[in-house]
Amino acid sequence: MRRHRVLYVAKTARGGSALSLYYLVRGLDRSRYEPVVLFYVQERLYTGDRLAESGIKTIALEKQHREPSAPAGPVSRRDIGGWLEARFGKMARQVYIFLKACYRFMCWEAPKIWPIVRAIQKSEIDLVHLNCGLRHGKPGIIAAWLTKTPCICHVRMFHTLSHFDKVFSRFVDSFIYISRAVAENYITQGISPVKGTVIHNAVDLAEFSLNCDVALVRSEFGWTSHERLVGVVGRLDWWKGHEYFLEAMAEVAQQIPNLRGIIVGEPESTPLNWEYYQKLQSLTKSLGLEDKVVFTGLRNDVPRLMSALDVVVLSSAAPEPFGRVVIEGMAAGKPVVATAAGGVLDIIEDGLNGLLVPCKNSKAMAQAILWLLSNQEQARQIGLAARQCVAQRFTVEHHVAKVQSVYDSTMDVA
Question: Which DSSP helix (H) or strand (E) runs through 228?
């Protein structure tokens, strides 16, 4: 029997969504499925390199990103939609937004349709798997419809869907959501719940060995086993709440002088996030943490770094769609302190396999970190329970089996 060929359409090779895609395609049953990955933009990044090393065929539609960035912050621009609503009513605003979305689609997204169609035809694709939700998956949705190919939309972010976005949902055969919170976000906006399945992201436990040379990792930063080390991992995005982490570290340092911290990640190349990064640098100085907290920049050895931590923190100020860093910290056998919102609530049972704190509450975060550092045996037990939870619920094998089940049912329906 011929293997089913699956075309994965992804906006970018950056971030957790691309890494999750890598784990999925690498773990596919190759006796049944043959993957081809298509990126909107050619990016020789960590995930792209790993795909190539695994022998997975990749296609890029563009060599450089051409679409202009969204404004970094408040701009002195007329609110045309607001003016129309004030003058002619709410319907006028909605029509304007719909037409604007149509214009943007024709300028930036429609040109991608025919290259995707050609990729489907050339590779004799049996199923299209969109890795970028409805908002950015429209070219792939239309290409699948034109070629009469079943289409799955993998939703990895919270999106506010416009009426224009929702038009395309009728051409999607199945939706995969990475958490209950993401599923609820789409369903409350009118997407049929019948089409959707919640399948959590996964982590490769083998990458998070419990036998790393912790002393060697710490020595890279000039630290020994005597320092208590706490870290945040993830891109420096304005909503990730690093400022609350820094404030919490300053408070904990008053009681644990040998406290040290690392912030792993870099800002996206947008004015807003570079401004956020500069704000974090200034806050580090004003809190007196220059000698205690290190900004490592982008690192490709996250499992190694996590092995050296005493506590992993997810400090997001807004709900996470899932929270990949949470299951990574848990896979490393570390106690995790995470903000209690979004997909994190699908992962952590407070006090059992991690600790939950309110968003934007540095005092609660400090108390949780301090408790774990002061109660090492309880922290160790939480870390062990965390790794066991990952082994039971968030392995690549478990994730792939569920996704392949959706593939089979979608192709049968189609």
Answer: strand 228-233
Which residues of the chain are modeled with pLDDT < 50? 67-77
Q: Round to whole Å and give the CA distance between 10 and 100.
A: 24
Provide φ and ψ at 61, rounded to 5°. Answer: -80, -35
Instruction: Give the strand pairing for 196-198 and 228-233.
Output: unpaired
Q: Residues of 131-150 as b/e, b for ≥16 C-beta within 10 angstroms?
A: bbbbebbbbbbbbbbebebb
State the burial class of residue 229 (Cβ atoms within 10 Å of its Cβ: 0-12, 13-18, 19+): buried
Q: Is residue 3 a contact partner of residue 31, using CB atoms and an 8 Å limit?
A: yes
Distance CA 251, CA 255 (A): 8
Distance of CA 131 to the CA centre of its chain: 11
The pLDDT assigned to 78 comes to 60
322-342 pLDDT tens trace? 999 999 999 999 999 999 999
Name residue 186's amino acid.
Answer: Y
Name the strand (E) or helix (H) holding 229: strand 228-233
Distance CA 185, CA 180 (A): 9
Calpha distance 242→227 (Å, rounded): 21
pTM (2 d.p.): 0.90
The token pair at 170 is 């009728």
Residues 14, 20: Cα–Cα separation, whole Å: 11
Q: Which of 157, 90, 113 is nearest to 98 (CA)?
A: 90
How many Å apart are CA 198 and CA 65, to the nearest integer?
Answer: 31
Instruction: Tell me the C-alpha distance between 58 and 258, whole Å.
Output: 47
Residue 35 has φ and ψ, to the nearest 5°, of -90, 145
In the block, which residue shows the tokens 């899932």? Answer: 322
Q: What are 175-201's pLDDT values in tens digits?
A: 999 999 999 999 999 999 999 999 999
